[in-house]
Amino acid sequence: MPPRAARAGAVRRLQMLGEALVDPHGVEGENGEGNAPGLGLLPLVTAFEPDKLLRRTDACFDGVGDEWSMLRGVQFGGYEIRHGRSVQHPALPAAAVALRNAEGEAIGWQQGSVLGLYAHGLFESTEVLRALFGARVRGLESVFDGLADFIDRHFEPGALMRLLADAEPEPGKD
User: Fold this and answer.
1) Strands (E), the chain
2) pLDDT (tens digit, 9 = 90+) per residue, 100-123?
3) Which among 34, 68, 110, 135 counts the fewest CB atoms within 10 Å?
4) What is the pLDDT of residues 70-109, one digit of tens each?
5) Does domain 7-137 have CATH number 3.30.470.20?
């Protein structure tokens, strides 16, 4: 398990973990007014870009240090959705590149107990959950199968469909 003081952040949290958020295109504010300091926990600078990146990604933890070593070599499929691009701050010692996508692009960084990632879907991966929390962790598919079995055992046939039909909004009303 990660140490108690371990911290992780994904996407906007990753961006906030860095030294600065730069918004030259006004993506998050009026023409540069969206510039803001970060928390300074990772030596990164994020520049917001006008076009949003949305893509599926296969990633592998390859450069994690001791604090997150249980993730070393773990692969998972997820996705990226973001407006920014983060790079190492040129005047500070570099953070370790902890996660790379299939193209070899850095999409996660670590410094000590702080881990920041651009990839979503981490906690939907059975491999990641087992690496973090142990072999007894059930995957998401198994959890949903268990929920479906519970509903089959304890609800009369058609009960869920009736509840869903009752919950449909009337036409023209939101």
Assistant:
1) 7-10, 20-22, 36-37, 44-61, 75-88, 96-101, 106-111, 114-117
2) 999 999 999 999 999 999 999 988
3) 135
4) 999 999 999 999 988 999 999 999 999 999 999 999 999 9
5) no
